[in-house]
Amino acid sequence: MTEAFDLDPAYLTVNHGSFGAVPRSVQAAQRAWAARMEAQPTRFLATEAPDALRAAATVLARYLNTDPEGLGFVTNATEGCNAVLRSLRLAPDDEILVLSHGYGAVRKTAGFVAARAGARVVEAALPFPRPTGEAVLDALAAALSPRTRIAVLDHITSPSALVLPVAAMIALCRAHGVPVLVDGAHAPGQVPLDLFALDADWYTGNAHKWLFAPRGCAFLATAARHRATTHPAVISHGHGDGYVAEFDWTGTRDPSPFLAIEAAIAAHAALGGTALMARNRALVAEAGTMLAGHFGTEVGAMPAMQGAMSVIRLPRAGDTAEALALRQRLFVRGTDVPTVAIDGALWLRISAQAYNDRADYERLAGLVETALAA
Ligand SMILES: Cc1ncc(COP(=O)(O)O)c(C=O)c1O
After folding, report:
1. Which ligand 1 atom sits closest to the C-alpha of 80?
2. CATH number, domain at 320?
3. What is the pTM for the complete model shown?
């Protein structure tokens, strides 16, 4: 399956999670859209792109099982979270709930929005490693309060690669009258998704990580009850004309990543679709167990919370500075693996994608060992 991609064979790619990798067929589709645009930019952007964008939104909405009228394209999940959080009207002492393993940039956005209003960010402390679903729900319940105005829940956590039980978490928040923004940056293409069934208030996700879209292709799906009050991070001509108009035009931008979504979904299906997700999950589980055995340590997730990424504890205590230094030592040795410090221990996050096999992680074990010894 490596022929579907342009990856440099000299470099060990086991970090699909950070920025994805775009199959050749999707690159070609994006280039074809760009060529149409460059043949006559004004004609394309004024007369062809609006309908093409809506058609692309409809294709993506069908894949996610959600309403295209509530699906706005955004450049990335950070922008999707910004749109929701910056649309909130908070009062002093209101609370924004985030998870302790929440994505740093999104936690900063929550902090920015809260500070402007004299509100607070409250953190639900996820138990780690190998939390049960029940323990995650208990941590969430402990952080909810009568002042919680929104809960930002990561579908798949970035530092710890936990696939959280978001359906049960949304239900818990709903029972407390708290609306939920799901940060699903890693979910589309990594785990099966049915947004109607999840019924979040907002769900943002990247198509440019695990769904093989070009970088800059992400979405914000908003429940009908919030569409009139949810605005894009950039206010432009569509403001006041409804959700779709507001999100479809946020100033001049290159729509080709969005327009390539049909090709991306087709490439994902051609590489196996849900079978690819299952294959990646099995491969990363095997690789995680092998690496944990190699280092005499442990993996971070129980099978029920495992997707196509896994974190493995390294036989080394350390802080964030040491984690970054180790990542640099891996870079110069020809690979990249996110390394994070959690509760004073160093963890390694690996990904499994169509182009990976078991040998990649055996090679990784050797590189990590030399980087640790350096
Ligand atoms: C949970 C989570 N949220 C948000 C993001 C940010 O994604 P992007 O840079 O595409 O906005 C990431 C990136 O890995 C993530 O893991």
Report:
1. 11
2. 3.90.1150.10
3. 0.98
